[in-house]
Write a structure and sequence with these properties.
By secondary structure, this protein is mostly beta strands. It has three domains: 75 residues, no CATH class; 114 residues, no CATH class; 30 residues, no CATH class. The protein contains one helix and 24 strands. The longest helix has 8 residues.
Length: 252
């Protein structure tokens, strides 16, 4: 099939379609089907056990189960997904609600909103991200502002960050290549900050129980305040080898 200039809506069942450019907004519903297209306008996709591959598009709304989705360049994406695989090179904004799915975005993204369950997400440089989820993994080259409302048994590799706020977390792992500000209220979490940003002003504020916090200051000066519920002798043993770190311990 060549280019289509007029209205083009498709309902496919156990079919395969090859198309060029579609010159109008469209609705595409697919079951057990495959679609290979060139350039699209704004599209509403309803997918079930189907494969979609195209070059460029406008804004997309996608409702999908058991499907594969691949594109080079899109506008905004609004996705409801179940057990899917998405691979997109360039996208502006992304809103995803998902279970058991994988998402790979290789470009920089302005805004990301994620509601995840047992899913995976990777992206380049992200300007702003909000997240809530369980049993998931997120990987960023960098994320400027990250707001996590709720995390449970997740894994985060955040690259270079400016501001990270975690309102509630349990059993999660956080790896930051570089940090300017990190706030967390957690339970049994692991936090590793490999470097503080140049001219670090913070804060890094961690409140919780059974937290493991590892910070490499890389000779960047900073001051730490601890509110620790433990015996004085144990606290002194913990910090006896860090004489250059200015400490204020308030022992209950």
């Amino acid at each position: 099939m060549g280019d289509l200039d007029g209205e083009a809506d498709f309902t496919l069942y156990s079919s395969t379609i090859h198309a060029g450019d579609i010159g109008s907004d469209s609705e595409i519903a697919m079951k057990y089907s495959k679609a290979y297209m060139e350039n699209l306008k704004d599209v509403d996709f309803d997918l079930y056990d189907s494969d979609v591959i195209f070059e460029n598009s406008g804004d997309l709304t996608v409702s999908s189960k058991y499907s594969k989705f691949e594109a080079k360049n899109t506008g905004k994406m609004d996705i409801k997904s179940y057990d899917d695989k998405f691979k997109v090179a360039l996208v502006s904004n992304v809103n995803i609600e998902t279970k058991y799915s994988d998402f790979e975005f290789s470009s920089d993204i302005n805004k990301v909103e994620l509601d995840f369950y047992d899913s995976n997400f990777s992206a380049g440089n992200v300007e702003q991200c909000t997240y809530q989820g369980k049993y998931s993994e997120l990987i960023f080259v960098s994320v400027k502002n990250l707001d996590i409302s709720n995390s449970y048994d997740d894994k985060f590799e955040l690259g270079k960050t400016k501001q990270v706020k975690v309102t509630e977390s349990k059993y999660s792992d956080y790896l930051l290549k570089q940090s300017s500000s990190f706030l967390l209220d957690g339970y049994d979490d692991n936090i590793t900050i490999e470097k503080l940003s140049d001219g670090f002003e913070g804060p890094i504020n961690v409140n919780g129980k059974y937290i493991k916090l590892d910070i490499d200051s890389d000779n960047e000066p900073y001051q730490v305040y601890f509110n620790i519920n433990m015996q004085r002798s144990i606290c002194q043993q913990m910090f006896k080898s860090v004489s250059e770190l200015k400490k204020v311990a308030i022992l209950n």
